[in-house]
Design a protein that fits this description.
eight-stranded parallel sheet; 10 strands; globular; alpha/beta; TIM Barrel; two-stranded antiparallel sheet; binds NADP nicotinamide-adenine-dinucleotide phosphate
């Protein structure tokens, strides 16, 4: 496993996304993932599966301190009391005293950063999160959050795959020394079947999904693909033994001209335009 380092955090460069994984499917996916070599799990209060993620961790037999666990506080829980309750409930669900990374899942435009960011910082100073960060922040939101934070924000978790242009927000994240965690890295199933990715994969003896993940790894991002299929679990961490050429990277980069956004809920911010 490779790592991306940011502000003292050492983040395994592939994580297991767990959104939509429920009940025993989630327990088994987490257990199998850890047993085949994953060391990074991504969950959220909103996913309703933190209990199962914790159960999968314990069932795997892998030591807690070998695993990097991220959870998130959602946008309707960003006032101080609610934030604290949400985090405490997440830790109780996971049956853990701390997570490795705690994120604001989505900003709430009605709550200023001067209110939400101190709660995030407190999670770190209280020892309930080793590191803190944000998700779905735009370039302006990053600047505004950094202006008030008293602890480093180690990552921005954003939608990233070959079909979306995130150049501006990636540059802004890097300007602040933050890691970029790439969610929806297989474009929620739109990667398999895409001609260029299939063709490039064939040339390397890899699948189109592996090409998408490798592309993101070579861009320096941390993809967190989701799957409960054992073969896909193995395939999605088997992306460190081949290299995409400069020409292949350039061809894949051109696919972002479509700027296809998969995740865009009503509470999303006004995104940066390419
Ligand atoms: N911060 C945020 O706001 C936010 C938003 C969305 C997602 N996320 C995080 O990002 C994670 C990933 O996003 P996502 O789950 O929406 O989408 P994704 O990982 O891009 O796509 C998941 C889909 O890809 C398929 N897949 C996975 N590996 C494959 C492979 N090797 N070959 C072919 N198909 C494969 C899965 O099917 P199978 O199960 O059949 O393999 C599933 O249908 C989430 O689970 C969550 O942890 C965060």
């Amino acid at each position: 496993m490779q790592y991306v380092e940011a502000h003292g955090a050492r983040i395994p460069q592939i994580g297991l996304g767990t959104m939509t994984l429920k009940e025993d499917v989630c327990v088994q996916a987490v257990k199998t993932a850890l047993q085949v070599g994953y060391t990074h799990l991504d969950t959220a209060a909103f996913y309703g599966n933190e209990k199962e993620v914790g159960e999968g961790l314990r069932a795997s037999g892998v030591a807690r301190d070998k695993v990097f666990i991220c959870t998130k506080v959602r946008e309707n829980n960003l006032l101080p009391d609610l934030f604290q309750k949400s985090l405490d409930q997440s830790l109780a669900n996971l049956q853990l005293p701390y997570v490795d990374l705690l994120l604001i899942h989505w900003n709430n435009k009605d709550i200023p950063f001067s209110v939400s960011i101190p709660s995030l910082c407190k999670a770190k100073t209280d020892g309930k999160a080793k590191h803190i960060g944000v998700a779905n922040f735009t370039t302006k939101m990053l600047d505004d959050a950094w202006a008030v934070t008293t602890e480093p924000l180690v990552c921005n978790q954003i939608e990233m795959h070959p079909f979306i242009n995130q150049d501006k927000v990636v540059a802004a994240s890097k300007k602040h020394g933050m890691a970029v965690v790439a969610y929806v890295p297989i474009a929620r199933g739109k990667v398999p079947g895409a001609e260029a990715l299939e063709r490039i994969g064939k040339a390397h003896g890899k699948s189109s999904a592996q090409v998408s993940l490798r592309y993101l790894v070579q861009l320096g991002a941390v993809p967190i693909p989701r799957t409960a299929t054992p073969d896909h679990l193995k395939a999605n961490i088997d992306v460190f033994d081949f290299n995409l050429s400069d020409a292949e990277m350039a061809e894949l980069k051109k696919l972002n001209a479509t700027n296809m956004r998969v995740v865009n809920p009503p509470h999303a911010p006004v995104w940066d335009t390419p």
